[in-house]
Specification:
This protein is α+β, with helices and mostly antiparallel strands and 321 residues long. It is 34% helix and 25% strand. Strand 1 and strand 2 form a beta hairpin. It is globular, with a radius of gyration of 20 Å. The structure holds adenosine-5'-diphosphate (ADP) and magnesium ion.
């Protein structure tokens, strides 16, 4: 199978986009996107490299899902509505048994969010997946990292923070889990759900937002630096699965606070909007949990339910350190 046959067979679909924003998709030199009047384009790129971002053991269908999910998660964190995406793919071989399920996983998530693959590039090389997503957000309404203010409450989405990290530790051999529990946390690692509906519901409610890709503390640090504020995190309030809750406390803390690959939204909102945040979670069908607050004094403190300081010896993930 050649390059063009592969593109035609697996990455080209009769245009079925419900999005009027996609004026032209795969097949020409450029795709054409038309955001609605009064909206800004929101653009984000995430690359997935084998051995770095995913293990060779992952099923191709899940890999297709995750490659798009981590990108949609960035749109979610900005409160942007997804329109389309491009896919730049380097493949060692034109291997149908990989490409077909990979495309299936990617398109299933694309369809769940009503977006189309509008273009890309396909080349031979070590397995590497780079997706760019395009979204739209009304001018001035994007959720940014820079908007947290003293007195704001700190919130996190979802119920299974830290599961992806627990799965990674099992793959690394530092932890062991019964088979069914391993499958549960492995699913969290391999098929994260981007919180797009929540991001949209939080427009005009949240003061800042970020998605958790490198661990809660590291990602919160980005918000605090951009906003020029500090924060207190209540570790006992952080939502966790029954599987994680059954682990030793130190491991729970590491997975919750320094895990990564969660793709939950971490956001702030004025305390007077507490009920509005809960309503946004309801509208989006996504759990939201208040887990701390923002302070004027810089710094990041983690405390337990009794108010005692919790040690946080981990460093945030950095590709070059
Ligand atoms: P060009 O030579 O102009 O770069 P290509 O030959 O690389 O174009 O691609 C032909 C068409 O197929 C273009 O519209 C491109 O966007 C699309 N395309 C290539 N690879 C992919 C892919 N992996 N997924 C989706 N579309 C793709
Ligand atoms: Mg090209």
């Amino acid at each position: 199978m050649g390059e063009f046959e592969l593109i035609a067979r697996h990455f080209t679909r009769a245009s079925r986009s419900a999005r009027p924003a996609v004026a032209l998709g795969v097949g020409d030199d450029c795709a054409l996107l038309q955001p609605a009047p009064g909206q800004q384009l929101a653009i984000s790129t995430d690359m997935l490299v084998e051995g770095r971002h995913f293990l060779s053991t992952v099923a191709p269908e899940r890999l297709g899902h995750k490659a798009l999910a981590v990108n949609l998660s960035d749109l979610a964190a900005c409160g942007a509505e997804p329109l389309g995406c491009t896919l730049a793919l380097a493949l060692p071989r034109a291997d149908e048994s990989f490409v077909a399920p990979f495309a299936r996983g990617l398109f299933a998530l694309a369809d769940a969010h009503g977006i189309e693959l509008v273009g890309g590039d396909t080349t031979a090389g070590p397995l590497n997946i780079c997706i760019t997503v395009f979204g739209q957000v009304p001018v001035g309404q994007a959720l940014l990292r820079s908007g947290a203010r003293p007195g704001d409450e700190l919130w996190v989405s979802g119920r299974t923070l830290g599961d992806a990290r627990l799965a990674l530790e099992v793959f690394r051999g530092t932890q062991a889990l019964p088979g069914a529990d391993f499958e549960t946390v492995r699913r969290a690692m391999e098929t994260p759900q981007p919180r797009v509906a929540l991001g949209l519901a939080l427009r005009g409610v949240a003061s800042s937002a970020i998605d958790i890709s490198d661990g809660l503390l590291g990602d919160l640090g980005h918000v605090l630096r951009r906003s020029g504020v500090g924060a207190v995190v209540q570790v006992d309030a952080l939502p966790r699965s029954a599987v994680l809750a059954a682990q030793p406390l130190a491991l729970q803390h590491e997975c919750l606070l320094a895990g990564g690959d969660d793709y939950e939204l971490l956001f702030t909102a004025p305390a007077v909007l507490h009920a509005a945040v809960l309503a946004a979670g309801e509208r989006a069908g996504t759990a939201v949990t208040c887990c701390g607050h923002i302070e004027a004094a810089p710094g990041l403190r983690v405390v337990d339910a009794s108010g005692a300081a919790v040690a946080t010896p981990w460093r945030s993930f950095d590709h070059f350190q």
